[in-house]
Amino acid sequence: MASEKKVQKSAESIQKKLDERIKEMNCLYNLSGLDEIELTVEEIFEKSAEFLQKALQYPELAEIRFQFDGREYQTEKYHEKFEKISAVSKRGQNQVLEVDACYYNEKGEQPKINFLKEERAMLQAIADLLGLKLFQKKINTDLKESLQRYELVTRATSDAIWDYDAKTKKLSWGDGFMRLFGYKSGDGKDISHWFDKIHPSDKNRIEVKVESFMQGDIKWWDEEYQFKKANESYAFVRDKAITEFNEDGELVRVTGAMEDITDRKVVELRDKLSSDISKVFNSSESTTEALNGTLHCFYSIKNFAIAEFWLVDNKKESLVLTAHLQNTDNKMLFYKKSQQIKSFKKGEGMPGKTWHNKQELFWRNLDSRKTFVRNNAARITDIKTAFSFPLMHDDEVLGVLLLAVHEDIKNESHYLPLFRKLSDQIGHEISRKKLEE
Question: Smallest Cα–Cα separation from 402: which of 295, 313, 278?
């Protein structure tokens, strides 16, 4: 009987040791399956701590700490003062991973538990495996950032390179800013110098993104917005940047490159508007309905102060206001102050001159320009700049598109080419629609 108990006890002891070794093997297996490329360092630590706790003698009491590359992760109740086992893995001179494990009970005390030699061996194996994964991740991250910086620098021939020093809070611009936007390169500007040149319609969105980016919430910066050039026109830009933080997690610098994408953006907007305009004309019952729908399409890209269509009457003696929107108080006030003006003769006012010349016009200072017949209404509603485009078919002017904005635009770089093409399409659509009526 005593012999049977001894055998049973021996068997139980062997089974327990076997169970412990299985837990250790499962831990190493799970660690080997971690994707160090996709996971963040914090996620690697969190998952590794979970695997390691389960592999120790008493998982419910085990607490873990990792220290690597200036970072530290520990489970909730880990305490430095408690007796622990440690393992260190070194990769190169500076890449050191330290793994610590201790036991901690609900009373806040360290239970009297002796660590097994197998646990110590397992901890070293885990440190070696995890250290290798973290080392590979750091190499990959450093390489990615180096390639990104290299891409930014090598694009300097076509882009405008900039650099922000977080310590001095100064912004430096490269030579590309003169070539693309007309600004002199140099140092010593603060970040507001850049913010002031962002178009009002984009500024709030970009400010929110910049704050998040510089806090480290966003790793890579890649945004599109409108940027004011030295001649006071706006360019569409794509701005890409990366940040550099020190070991304490503090921002050191930001390096970026701005690309002028105005030509590409104009083509994208034109193609979208062209498609929308075709749909509007195909679904509308009348020319007037189609033109009003087209104006709504225009407002999807910019809230114009004025957007209106003037069509040549049947006698071909004058242009008649056929479609316009009064969707704001300011627009309603403009038309109230100019309500007596419903038509123009050829050569009269901006629409009439566009009809007569068969050419687009770009006028500034509308509030004081006598040839802009509605200059008083423009002054009251603070409208500064206007564009007009002939709507033609078979070399005949069928009407005029007039657009105006509140900004005093000295040079126009994208609305003119954008609506020049669209005006040709609208002229053909009007001709087709009139044949259907």
Answer: 295
Exposure string (b/e) for 273-293, b if CB count within 10 Å is 16 or more? beebbeebbeebeebeebbbb
Instruction: List, in sequence order, every residue forming a beta bridge with 240; answer none if it has no partner.
Output: 222, 257
Q: Say if residues 101 and 126 touch (Cβ distance below 8 Å).
A: no
- Token readout for 282 is 């195909």
Nearest to 239 by CA among 223, 226, 218: 223
CB distance 129 to 88 below 8 Å: no
User: Which structure tokens are listed for 292?
Assistant: 């009003």
Token pair, residue 182, equals 């007309």
Q: Of 392, 393, 419, whose CA–CA distance to 404 is shortest?
A: 419
Q: Quick check: helix, strand or coil at residue 182?
A: coil
Q: Record the tokens describing residue 207, joined without a space.
A: 């400010």
Q: Rounded CA gap, 363 and 376, in Å?
A: 15
- DSSP string for residues in 303-344: --SEEEEEEE-TTSSEEEEEEE---SHHHHHHHHHTTT--EE
Q: Could you tell me where the DSSP H helices lie in 33-107? A: 41-55
Q: What is the spatial distance between Cα 45 and Cα 3, in angstroms, rounded to a whole number?
A: 48
Check residue 40 and give its pLDDT.
Answer: 85
Burial (CB < 10 A; 0-12, 13-18, 19+), residue 211, is exposed
Is residue 71 within 8 A of residue 83, CB to CB? The reply is no
Task: Please choose, from the candidates 234, 254, 240, 213, the residue with its C-alpha nearest in 3D space to the C-alpha of residue 159.
Answer: 240
Distance of alpha carbon 99 from alpha carbon 119, whole angstroms:
12
**Cβ atoms of residues 155 and 257 within 8 Å:** yes
**Distance of alpha carbon 88 from alpha carbon 126, whole angstroms:** 10
Instruction: Give the predicted TM-score (pTM) of the model.
Output: 0.57
**Run means of pLDDT, 10 residues per run, the chain, 437 residues:** 61 71 82 82 90 88 88 86 87 80 79 84 88 82 66 61 86 82 71 88 91 82 90 88 85 89 89 94 95 93 91 95 90 93 96 96 94 96 95 95 90 77 93 87
